[in-house]
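Quick start: load a record and inspect it. Here is ABC transporter ATP-binding protein:
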Amino acid sequence: MADRKAILEVQNATLKFGGLTALNEVSFDIKEGEILGLIGPNGAGKTTCFNAMTGVYQLTSGQIRFDGQPLARMKRNKITKLGIARTFQNIRLFKAMTVLENVMVGADAHSKVSFVEALFRLPRHRRTEAESIERAKELLDLVGIKARHDELASNLSYGDQRRLEIARAMATNPKLLCLDEPAAGFNPAEKQRLMELIRKVRDNGYTVLLIEHDMRLVMGVTDRIVVLEFGRKIAEGTPEEIRDNPAVIAAYLGVDEEDAS
Ligand SMILES: Nc1ncnc2c1ncn2[C@@H]1O[C@H](COP(=O)(O)OP(=O)(O)OP(=O)(O)O)[C@@H](O)[C@H]1O
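Running the structure step on this input writes:
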């Protein structure tokens, strides 16, 4: 893993909201093909970090590079085109569209067909449309809901809606897939299935960044973990290293480091 290329480099990232420093000199890399966990107690800065990576917020100082390119002042759709896709803590699907259409909307962000070609349904558009239906079905198959492609997204169970969100994010062909608390509201059996899905996604060639509160899931599925507390990185390492790290235990238990060790 150590000799793999870093797809994302966060370098001394600092982000302030007025007087509050939500990210404080945070640095870490995500290597191609790994599953990296970003964890920390509530308010630690995880979502802020995601938002800085996806162009929602601009850093106050420091930089984030993706595939070698600095992301500063880059528009969100440009970042998506570069290859970062994300899901959200709160599910954001088009409920009145079918499952398949939801995935195709994701793929459309990357369509090479012009508006005129699409409007007049020219041959290139029809060919591309057939290809994108095929690709969308492959993604639905990967996340395990292909059989339901014709149903309205609103008819899916909560767990399947989360799976659909993942398929939709993958439809942009991202080099990096960011999952923001994908197990929120899941029962243990659903969490188990989600772990299997995240591994499968990685085995299909994706790099995954995972924000998640469920420790069993994070420990069970990630290759490496970065821990934030009050906007600072307090630890980084393999799940085994993080599990035994006194600073991490203290952060989660809300006690002094000496008491936790
Ligand atoms: N838009 C904003 N304006 C002002 N403060 C913000 C904003 N977004 C986040 N914060 C603050 O920044 C800090 C980090 O928040 P963030 O949401 O990144 O934490 P988190 O680790 O994702 O927490 P959680 O696990 O609860 O989602 C918090 O103190 C939060 O209140």
